[in-house]
Amino acid sequence: MARKQNTTKKVKVVGHVEYVNQATGEVEDFQVVRMEDRDFDFHKIWLGHVINSLDLIGNQKTKLAFWILDNLDSENKLTMTYRQIADKSGISLETVRITMQALIDSNFIQRVNMGVYRVNPETVFKGSRGGRLNVLYQYENTSLENEKSQKFKNKENQ
């Protein structure tokens, strides 16, 4: 599957610099520019407002998904067991189990370790572009490790 382009090059004027042409001795003025990657083709979401609105109309599974987003660390991770999530969110343990598995199956969230989950930074990320790219790299590495582990388990069960 081809990945959709999420960045574009942007030329930013930094300033002017004077250079001396060594052949003629003439002083020439040059404009200095910098090429930057910029995000595009995305929607800005004010998560607090969306959460409040959907909290009024959503079910417990929706509330849990938004609770997770509201409790992520700077690496898009939630470090809690299902029981801790249930206790802190006020949502039943069974609903937490079902919802977390659905979020894992849909690639919205991944299990990093027992009690450690990371939200897909292609879906939601709060922070800088560099931070997002770092978390995306970690997310993709964990996905590869999880695939290898699953293939190994499947071979053992055959």
Topology:
Layout: E1 7-20, E2 27-39, H1 47-57, H2 60-70, E3 77-79, H3 82-89, H4 93-105, E4 109-113, E5 116-119, H5 129-156
Antiparallel strand pairs: 1-2, 3-5, 4-5
Helix pairs in contact: 1-2, 2-4, 3-4
CATH superfamily of the largest domain, by name, is: Winged helix-like DNA-binding domain superfamily/Winged helix DNA-binding domain
Order of helices and strands: EEHHEHHEEH
**How many strands, which pairing sense, and closed or not: the largest β-sheet?**
3 strands, antiparallel
Kindly report how far apart the N and C termini lie. 29 Å
Structural class of the helices, strands and pairings?
alpha+beta
Mean pLDDT: 85
Strand portion, in percent?
15-25%
Morphology call = elongated
User: What is the percent of helical residues?
Assistant: 40-55%
CATH architecture of the largest domain: Orthogonal Bundle
Strand order of the largest sheet: 3-5-4
Q: How many structurally independent domains?
A: 2
**Could you say what the CATH topology of the largest domain is called?**
Arc Repressor Mutant, subunit A
Low-pLDDT segments: none
Figure out the total of helices: 5
E-strand count: 5
Q: Output the radius of gyration.
A: 23 Å
> What is the CATH level 1 assignment of the largest domain?
Mainly Alpha
Tell me what the structure shows.
The protein has 158 residues and is an alpha+beta fold. It folds into 2 domains: 7-39, no CATH class; 60-143, Arc Repressor Mutant, subunit A, CATH 1.10.10.10. The protein has 5 helices and 5 strands. The protein has helices at 47-57, 60-70, 82-89, 93-105, 129-156, and strands at 7-20, 27-39, 77-79, 109-113, 116-119. The strands form 2 sheets. Strands 3-5-4 form a 3-stranded antiparallel sheet. α1 (47-57) runs antiparallel to α2 (60-70), α2 (60-70) packs across α4 (93-105) and α3 (82-89) packs across α4. The longest helix is centred in the last third of the chain and has 28 residues, at 129-156. The chain is elongated, with a radius of gyration of 23 Å. The model has no long low-confidence stretch (mean pLDDT 85).
